[in-house]
TrEMBL record:
Biased composition (Acidic residues): 32-44
Protein name per the record: NagD protein
A cellular-component GO term for this protein: cytoplasm
PANTHER family in the record: 4-NITROPHENYLPHOSPHATASE-RELATED, HALOACID DEHALOGENASE-LIKE HYDROLASE DOMAIN-CONTAINING PROTEIN 2
Organism: Streptomyces griseomycini
Region (Disordered) location: 1-52
Compositional bias (Pro residues): 12-25
Cofactor(s) this protein requires: Mg(2+)
């Protein structure tokens, strides 16, 4: 990887060509790197980090190629918080973004983990409610209704209003209501999905439905999947709430909607339309529901491939927390970057 040269602020700059104004020395960014990524300063206990990626950066910055204090110098460079792989120049356009007036946050991996609140989640929700800023807690899980999730979160000590919960089932229902009002659907899913479709006036039937709608369920019936295949082959349009291929459990990963959708696709040759993350449709319909605009909104998530991607494509600022599925060393593997990377939701409380 090529690294940009780092100019020593104390070193004299080369004279400008005759007739041209001298260029200002580049400013080293402590908060906003050139592609809009901020890696907040670690807690200082970084001795276990793989420092190899930073060695070239240090050599280019200092000309040092060896020495007993080399590792310490690399750690010091990392702690400057410029990025995890190189020093970058500040870009002014990030400072021109509007202040964040509304917040969207994923639920699992950001606020809770395996039924337990993540430290800082309660303070974040409390701060949001006190601020009066509109916000939504999002989940790709279509099993539960917003009322169910409200009760579950309350038992964990998180007071999230029912109207501040947005699920892939609600996004799917909104999409179908816009596409074909008062239509019909054959549904594989739980109460969260069937209730959302009932609420928009849909008829749930297995007789010539307009759509086959696949959502999350605790038990996928082979009989139901066979019927879905036959209805799709007969002309029904194929819709899925979300593309997640696996879901978490205390025993390990479970097959989820995306995996079952792949089975049906293989049997029918028909690709589904996914309404949930990373489709920015879920973000946009959520923002519309709370009267917010993407330019002044932020998305918080724990997954680069769903939360961050959907937020970017919806035109929002994005925060990646490291309490969920995406690991710090995986961030560089993606062709897009979040606006900021933080350890946990606790680091965002003061930004509300």
């Amino acid at each position: 990887m090529d690294h940009p040269e780092v100019q020593d602020p104390a070193a004299p700059s080369a004279p400008a060509p005759p007739g041209t104004a001298p260029s200002p020395a580049p400013r080293l960014a402590l908060e906003e790197p050139a592609d809009g990524v901020e890696v907040l300063e670690p807690d200082g206990n970084d001795t276990g980090k793989d420092l190899a990626p930073y060695a070239d950066t240090w050599r280019e910055a200092t000309g040092s190629r060896s020495g007993p204090d080399r590792s310490a110098k690399i750690r010091a460079l990392f702690r400057l918080g410029r990025t995890q792989d190189r020093v970058r120049q500040e870009i002014p356009h990030m400072a021109d973004r509007k202040p964040i007036e509304s917040w969207l946050t994923d639920m699992d991996g950001v606020l809770i983990h395996e039924g337990v609140p993540i430290p800082g989640a309660d303070a974040f929700i409390k701060r949001l409610r006190e601020s009066g800023k509109p916000f939504l807690v999002l989940t790709n899980n279509s099993i539960y209704t917003p009322r169910d999730l409200h009760a579950r979160l309350r038992r964990m000590g998180l007071e999230v209003p029912i109207e501040s919960i947005w699920t892939s089932a609600l996004a799917t229902a909104k999409f179908l209501d816009d596409q074909r009002p008062n239509g019909s659907a054959y549904v594989i899913g739980e109460a969260g999905l069937t209730t959302a479709l009932h609420d928009i006036g849909y008829v749930l039937t297995d007789h010539e439905p307009d759509y086959v709608v696949l959502g999350e369920t605790r038990t996928y019936s082979f009989e139901a999947m066979t019927k879905a295949v036959r209805l799709i082959n007969g002309g029904a349009r194929f819709i899925c709430t979300n593309p997640d291929e696996t879901g978490p459990s205390t025993e390990g990963p479970l097959p989820a909607t995306g995996a079952v959708a792949a089975l049906i696709t293989k049997a029918t040759g028909k690709q589904p339309y996914f309404a949930g993350k990373p489709n920015p449709l879920m973000m946009r319909t959520g923002l519309n529901a709370i009267g917010a605009h993407s330019e002044s909104s932020a998305m918080i998530g724990d997954r680069m491939d769903t939360d961050v991607l959907a937020g970017i494509e919806a035109g929002m600022q994005t925060f990646l927390v490291l309490t969920g599925l995406t690991l710090p060393e995986q961030v560089e593997n993606f062709p897009y970057r979040p606006s900021k990377v933080v350890d946990s939701i606790a680091d965002i409380v003061d930004l509300v």
